[in-house]
UniProtKB/TrEMBL annotation:
Keywords: ATP-binding, Kinase, Membrane, Nucleotide-binding, Transferase, Transmembrane, Transmembrane helix
Cofactor: Mg(2+)
Protein family according to the UniProt entry: Belongs to the NDK family.
Domain of life according to the entry: Eukaryota
Chemical reaction(s) catalysed: a ribonucleoside 5'-diphosphate + ATP = a ribonucleoside 5'-triphosphate + ADP; a 2'-deoxyribonucleoside 5'-diphosphate + ATP = a 2'-deoxyribonucleoside 5'-triphosphate + ADP
Nucleoside diphosphate kinase-like domain boundaries: 2-138
Source organism per UniProt: Salvia splendens
Identification of the protein by name: Nucleoside diphosphate kinase
Species lineage: Eukaryota, Viridiplantae, Streptophyta, Embryophyta, Tracheophyta
């Protein structure tokens, strides 16, 4: 199934120099990069992104974490990219994420888990609309079309 997902490298991932490594994993898997920017968001924006979690006890800390520095916001496209992207990322809690996954390899704390990926196609759509209101890149070359067949 052709899909798009929203992937965000969180401030700890950017500050620790993991951007290239993380992008490389999605590239080498064969997914297509459709959107990419480095942005520092404000509180209101972070609260919007995590609106579903506003009742959680960690919500405030989560928002402060996300606004603490630049994040890399991305759109990746490909077959089953939502579910497969979450496999590449690993379980939310790094204590449970398998070695070989991004969180399994690079994180130890659920409050500093390096990366976010949409949990479903529909939330991906919403997140892409929120983070990329200007739209995303158009691929004109047929170079990558074999991935979709
Ligand atoms: P993410 O995939 O971005 O989705 C929601 C985020 O909330 C999650 O990754 C973590 O960063 C954060 N989160 C979830 N549970 C907890 C928790 N128990 N304590 C702190 N942060 C959490």
């Amino acid at each position: 199934k052709m899909e798009q997902t929203f992937i965000m490298i969180k401030p700890d991932g950017v500050q620790r120099g993991l951007v290239g490594e993380i992008i490389g994993r999605f590239e080498k898997k064969g997914f297509t990069l459709k959107g990419l920017k480095l942005v520092t968001v404000d509180r209101a924006f972070a609260e919007k992104h995590y609106a579903d979690l506003s009742a959680k006890p960690f919500f405030n800390g989560l928002v402060e974490y996300i606004v603490s520095g630049p994040v890399v916001a991305m759109v990746w496209e490909g077959k089953n990219v939502v579910a497969t992207g979450r496999k590449i990322i690993g379980a939310t809690n790094p204590a449970e994420s398998a070695p070989g996954t991004i969180r399994g390899d690079y994180a130890i704390d659920i409050g500093r888990n390096v990366i976010h990926g949409s949990d479903a196609v529909e939330s991906g759509r919403k997140e892409i609309a929120l983070w990329f209101p200007e739209g995303i890149a158009e691929w004109r070359s047929s170079l990558h079309s074999w991935i979709y067949e």
